[in-house]
Structures are given as structure tokens and as C-alpha cells.
Amino acid sequence: MSLVADHDSTTQDPTSAGRDLELRAVTKSYGAFTAVRSLDLVVPQGSFFALLGPSGCGKTTTLRMVAGLDTPTAGTISLGDREITYDKPYKRPVNTVFQNYALFPHLDISENVAFGLKRRGVKETKKAVAEMLALVELESQGSKKPYQLSGGQQQRVALARALINNPEVLLLDEPLGALDLKLRRGMQIELKRIQTEVGLTFVHVTHDQEEAMTMADTVAVMNAGVIEQMGAPSELYDNPATTFVANFLGQSNLLAGDILGPDGDVVKVSVQGTTVSIPIERCHSEGGKGWVGVRPEKVMIAEVGGEIDAPGNRFEGGVVTDVSFVGVSTQYLVRMPWGQELMVFEQNTGRRPILAVGTPVDLSWRPEYAFLLDASQDAKAGVEDGDD
């Protein structure tokens, strides 16, 4: 199938404005294997929405069902009050941009962008093509062939070819996966700029946490066919609800603790004999045992007895076991007296020399940065998942 799923008309029905994409109890099974399990999801019209997760979690299957390339085993998919569950791909107001771009090598860039319009019988395409090339900042490249453009430029051509059809929803299936790191980061900014300018609903499928957090208004983290948590990127990162989200969306230190109970607006937890406090709104476990979580960049480090700029609980007796200099920060591994290694990311401000391997240190963090998760969850969930 071609990159562009053509529509019946070049302009949308005015009554379609403001329509949300809704999935209700959507399930997709292949024999005994269930790829997507009773998924309920609402994507607000005009938002940039990311489905984030590892290979095999169901995110691409979900996108293919919205595109009409796969049919749900159960459930419904709607745009506003129009159900599109069983509509053919070309009958849906939806276009898809894939990772491999699928540009026609024998057509120049302008002809590639105009392809969908011409296929529907639109004779005058010059103005629309010029507007799309301007949108993706390729005005001077219209007469070139795809092989003459860089990977990032080809991706923008694919985007223009999809947008020229004026879809209600644009689906992006790992669109930046073939680009190198520098191009990928540049295209993240470009995609967000374009989405803001055109105001369409973008649904972006990716395994790359940075992509999702950089571009999306809302991120849904998928695992094993279900959404584990959904919200603004900062919300998911700062206050993950499961160990999978804590580990997959960035890195986390998870320390086993005994939950002592609430105390005002915090919950007290005993960790290796030290009582720590967790804000109640960041607690996702009722009682008994739990995982106390804290992001590595929120952990403060100092040589034994030194001043730590964090009015939290002090954990003493650590020893630096590894040091990695990564430019803006130094990443430490610190072995604690109970044998666990904790990660500490310290910004390189130049305030003090980098600590050497073997240095005895103390650690601390502000209570408001910690979170508490259910001890029944695997502390390593989401850590070693491979890329798509």
C-alpha cells in the first residue's frame, strides 16, 4: 500500500471540527496471542499524542487498527460520532507516515507531494504543493529526486505528502527511526513545530522515550497490550505509577522499604533502617512493603561528612564504584552498605572536582522528589526491553 491513504475530498466537512479519536474496548488477537487487550483511549482533536513502549507491546498494532490496515478482534474505533472500525483505509480521514518514507524514486519532490491529490483527480496542485513545501521548509527542493535529499529532508517530504490530503488524524509510525541522532533531534523540533502550525491530531508511535517526551502533549506508556499510565510527559516522569513506567521512561533507583503509614501529608517508609517521607500524592501502594523510587538526577552526593544541598534523609556509607563523564553531567554508581548500587547524575557546574572511584560518600534527596510503588511489581520491569 502507498504511503498516502487518500480521502474522498480535499477539504473536511465543517461538522468534523473538534472530533476526538476514540478507541473503546479495542482488542486484537492473533490466534492465542493477544497483541492489544481491551484498550480504552481518547485522543483529543488537535493534540500531539505519543504511544510509547518496547517492541511487541501493541503500539504499532494499535496504530494499524486506526489506519485501517488491521481489523480489531473486538471493540470500536471512532472519530467523533463517526465509527470507522471497519472502514477501508482510503475511506478514513487518516494518513500515515512510515519509517521508510516510501517515496517514489522516479518522481521529483513536487510530484511526490502532489501524488495523493492527483490520484483523486485534483488537476490544479501547484499552489497546494508550494504551501506544503513551505511548511516543511523545502521550497527550493521541489525539482529534485528523493535520492538527492538527506534522510531528514526525505522524512519531511513524506510528511508533506501526507498533510496535503488534509487528514483529521496523522499517524506517525516510528518516523525518525532511520535517522542518525543529530538529525533525529532536529526533526523532533520540526515535527512539533509543524503540528502546532497545522493544528491536526498527531498520533506518534515510538520506542524512543526522548522522542515522546520532546514532542507529545500526552504520552501513553504501553506494555503487554495495555496502557500502564497516561499523562503529560512531566507527570509520567516525575510521578510514575508502576515500576515499568519508572524504568522505561528514564532511569530510576528503586529501594525496598517497609511502609510505616501516613503522617499528615506524607507516608513514612523505612529503608534499611532510615525513615524516609513520600508525598501522599506520589504514593501508589497501600501498605506492607513498597519500592521507594527516586530519579538519579534528584540524588545529591557528597564525600563522607560533607555538606549536601538536600534537606532529606541522609544515607551514609556509600562508595563510588563507577564514574562516567557525559559532558553536561557526571554519572556515578554508588554501592551502599546493603549491597545495592544506586545511580547519581550530577550536573557539571564546576562547583567541585569529580569524585573518583573508591571515594566514600553520603547520599540524600528531597522528600518531594521520591515516589512509592507496589512491592508486588518487578523492580526490573522495563529495564532491559529491546528496541523495535
Automatic annotation (TrEMBL):
MF (Gene Ontology): ATP binding; ATP hydrolysis activity; transmembrane transporter activity
Cellular component, GO annotation: ATP-binding cassette (ABC) transporter complex
InterPro entries: AAA+_ATPase, ABC_SmlMolc_Importer, ABC_transporter-like_ATP-bd, ABC_transporter-like_CS, Mo/tungstate-bd_C_term_dom, P-loop_NTPase, Transp-assoc_OB_typ2
Domain (ABC transporter) ranges: 21-249
Alphabetical list of SUPFAM superfamilies matching this protein: MOP-like, P-loop containing nucleoside triphosphate hydrolases
PROSITE patterns assigned: ABC_TRANSPORTER_1, ABC_TRANSPORTER_2
This protein's UniProt keywords: ATP-binding, Nucleotide-binding, Transport
Source organism, top-level taxon: Bacteria
Keyword ATP-binding: yes
A family per Pfam: ABC_tran
Protein name as annotated: ABC transporter ATP-binding protein
